[in-house]
Amino acid sequence: xxxxxxxxxxxxxxxxxxxxxxDAPVPGxxxxxxxxxxxxxxxxxxxxxxxxxxxxxxxEKTHHAHGKEYEKVLKTVSNPLKEAHHFDQSLGGVAxxxxxxxxxxxGISNSHYDTAxxxxxxxxxxxxxxxxxxKNKTKELxxxxxxxxxxxxKARAVxxxxxETLGQHTAAFESHGGKMTAADDPYVIQRGxxxxxxxxxxxxxxNRQDLISVQNSFAQFEAxxxxxxxxxxxxxxxxxxxxxxxxxxxYGDMVGTSQRIPLDFEWNGFIQRNNxxxxxxSAPARSVSNIHFPNQNHRSTQPLIAGSLxxxxxxxxxxxxxxYVVTPSKFLHEYKTDDDFAKDPVPELSLYLPxxxxxxxxxxxxxxxxxxxxxxxxxxxxxxxxxxxFKAHTPQAANQWWEIIRQAAGQxxxxxxxxxxxxxxxxxxxxxxxxxxxxxxxxxxxxxxPAPIQTQGLEKQNTMSPTTAGTAPGSAVPTSAAxxxxxxxxxxxxxx
Length: 496
Known about the structure:
It is a single chain. The protein has 496 residues and is α+β, with helices and mostly antiparallel strands. It has two domains: 27-268, Substrate Binding Domain Of Dnak, Chain:A, Domain 2 (Up-down Bundle), CATH 1.20.1270.60; 299-419 and 434-496, Pleckstrin-homology domain (PH domain)/Phosphotyrosine-binding domain (PTB) (PH-domain like, Roll). Helix content is 50%, strand content 9%. It has ten helices and eight strands. The protein has helices at residues 20-23, 33-75, 94-143, 145-176, 186-259, 265-273, 376-382, 395-408, 432-437, 440-448, and strands at residues 305-312, 319-326, 331-335, 349-352, 357-362, 365-371, 385-391, 411-412. The protein has an eight-stranded mixed beta sheet, covered by helices on one side. The longest helix is centred in the middle third of the chain and has 74 residues, at 186-259. The protein starts with 19 loop residues before the first helix and ends in a 48-residue tail after the last helix. Residues 1-31, 415-496 are annotated as: Disordered. Residues 303-412 form the PH domain. Keywords: Phosphoprotein. This is PH domain-containing protein. Pfam families: BAR_4 (PF20400), PH_20 (PF20399).
């Protein structure tokens, strides 16, 4: 900064056209005019510095308020994360990111508090001291140059009074012919005027020197004011800039921490923490064959015999193949297939064998008569007895089925099913071709009233041989029979 120039070299000078003002014993100028001008200037500087004080004070309060507001921001992430166990608690993950946000937000709040303290403790006192210096300068001007101006005004008033007195007595001398007292002698009065005029001039010169000193010092004082303001504003800039840089760095750290999280960090941690719960992709899929449950394969669940049989229809008189099972509970169940997965395996037909009658076995055929009990208790009450005609794939398979059903059946007859050769119309049996030629009404009537099985005068035969039962119609059933084989298919007991 350049040094201020001398105030005297740049001061304006008064010029008078006739020189009468400088020659006048009591000039008409206001001696306090210069002092008042400097007082106004000091007042202007004092107000300028007061503006800066107010600016720093309000900025300090604003930063303090910002600190409180950031404490509110901190409360939004101060609580632990909900379901925090789903996040990895080590550094480098989401939990670490929120910890970083909490730390930096607290740091931003503290930086605002620190900035407020620095502004109040470092910058504001600079302007307060400058304000006090300007006030002291004003007092100094009032007590120094101000007093001198008052002394000049007082001396000028005394001189003016004596000059007026001299004028009165010189006029009296002309009117009275020079007769007057010694004290009123114009000579004496004039010498008194010269004495007081000299004192006045001394006061004026002293006051003039004081004002010149004030003018010269004002340039340096104003330079001091400017330097102090520049120093204070420099401190202010450094403090707020430090706070701004800290805030920028803290926000940058928040963002950087979140961006450094590996994309699979949380997922890998989640997999490790819950490896006992989550599904292992490399593990084989579940299979029904690998599952075991209570009472699985209990003896009551194992069929006595199971496999496919052909059943003769009631209307079309043609044979349909279905899957049949004889259970230890003495039921003969009919299913469409042996598939347990396609649909719920509910029996299409269920015969409770102890309530059924079984006829003799003729080659591949045998008949069972009974009620379908698959419809429940109410349905069983209103159901009618039906004679079901079965046909096995081989005579040996038919013998096995017949023997197992016979052991569970309530009654056994020696009635032999019709052979595959068509019989005479006199017997009441008709071939499938003849059956198809019947009218629908006749077919329905025959389905509703099937030919009865001969059961008169017969008793339950539990020892009938399946091989002798089909020798000839009407022949007696032998009393002994060989036990039926357990299976007709190797490796699958009781299945055909």
